[in-house]
Amino acid sequence: MGKIQYKRLKGSQNMRLRLLLSTLSSTPIIIEDIRAEETLPGLRPYELSFLRLLEEVSDDCSVEINETGTKFKYKPGIVMGGRHLVHDCGTLRSIGYFLEPLIVLGLFGKKPLTIKLKGITNDSKDPSVDTFQKTTLPILKHFGVPPEGLELKIVNRGVPPKGGGEVILSVPIVKELQAAIWFDEGLVRRIRGYSFSARVSSQFENEMLHKARGIFNRLLPDVHIYTDHKAGAQAGQSPGYGITLVAETTSGCCISADTAVYRGGEEEDEFEEKKELSPPGDVGEKIAAALLAEIEQGGVVDSTHQGLLFLLCALCPPDVSKVRVGKLSPYGIEVLRHISDFLKVKFNIKPDPATNTVILKCVGCGLKNLSRKAS
């Protein structure tokens, strides 16, 4: 065995993305200066939890962290997949934080992946599990991932600060992805919503969806919002309610927006200026406006899914993928930089002034799933 060549990186930003790309490209990495100047230096509990999750789904992967947690070495192993895996995501970040990298890794495993994730299902920081179910998983189908065996089942709800939610994710394995030519966003043909309430009166939920539906009904006739009122163990351990809205277009694109309302949590993101919880009606109106803003931006995915879209394009066989997105999000730009760094895939970015969108083209790096059993 020769000496392992580590790629050196600095800082705590984009930790998930760096670890995901390191695993996919089999590049060992060292990350230094992780919050070295802060009062609480080093890795956060949710980042350690993500490292543990990588160890659970891989074989022969090694992680070495220094005493203060400001530097660690990560040598990726082989993604094994497997059934009956369980991981507790903690209550600092929601399950959505762990799902996106896990879905991509699962595709390139040795066996199909089935894992139970426990923690927070809906918060105002990360995409909700409903968004993953209705928007993220359908994106994979455009890249040749078979719909059989691709599923996210919501068992229990859980909102901050105590969580208590539970979901089961199943991901099939693929030999390789298929390049996608996907730039026709179509027109919105219907709106679907998925609201939930846990340990609070279902009246909150009804008021919220009534206000949201009022805005959409002026624009199109096919609007339906499903309710999901949980009680008992299925409601998790903290009270809260929330909603996810999905706009489905004539060309099969799904654009989504979501939010959740709850007391406390680590920091109250959306409701910082007023510590009182927003009235349900206002939440419904706000989220409807957020979805309309996403639709107005254009593109085949919403701004939260740009990173995933670019990553899937870059992992395709050496063939041209072409996609259209709205305004590039800051995270989308970071993903493009990291893809260029790890996978050596460069995107051709061309603004389309007529529609205020951006068209991106790339030739995939041709990642093949070599660990899967040959049938």
Structure write-up:
The radius of gyration is 21 Å and the shape is globular. It contains eight helices and 18 strands. Residues 266-274 have low confidence and may be disordered. Strands 1-2-5-4 form a four-stranded mixed β-sheet, with helices on one face. Helix 1 runs parallel beside helix 8 and helix 7 (306-315) runs parallel beside helix 8. Strand 12 (188-198), helix 5 (202-217) and strand 13 (223-230) form a beta-alpha-beta unit. It has helices at residues 15-24, 45-57, 95-107, 129-141, 202-217, 280-297, 306-315, 330-342; strands at residues 7-10, 29-32, 58-59, 62-65, 72-75, 78-79, 82-88, 113-119, 151-156, 165-171, 181-182, 188-198, 223-230, 240-249, 254-262, 320-325, 348-352, 357-363. The longest helix is centred in the last third of the chain and has 18 residues, at 280-297. With 375 residues, the protein is an alpha+beta fold.
Distance between the termini: 31 Å
H/I helix tally: 8
Q: In percent, how helical is the residue content?
A: 25-40%
Portion in beta strands: 25-35%
In round numbers, the mean pLDDT is 94
- What is the radius of gyration? 21 Å
Number of strands: 18
Strand order of the largest sheet: 1-2-5-4
Secondary-structure element sequence?
EHEHEEEEEHEHEEEEHEEEHHEHEE
Largest sheet: 4 strands, mixed
User: Uncertain segments of ≥5 residues (pLDDT<50)?
Assistant: 266-274
Q: What sort of overall outline do the alpha carbons produce when their principal axes are compared? A: globular
Based on secondary structure, the structural category is alpha+beta
Keywords:
375 residues; four-stranded mixed β-sheet; globular; 18 strands; alpha+beta; 8 helices
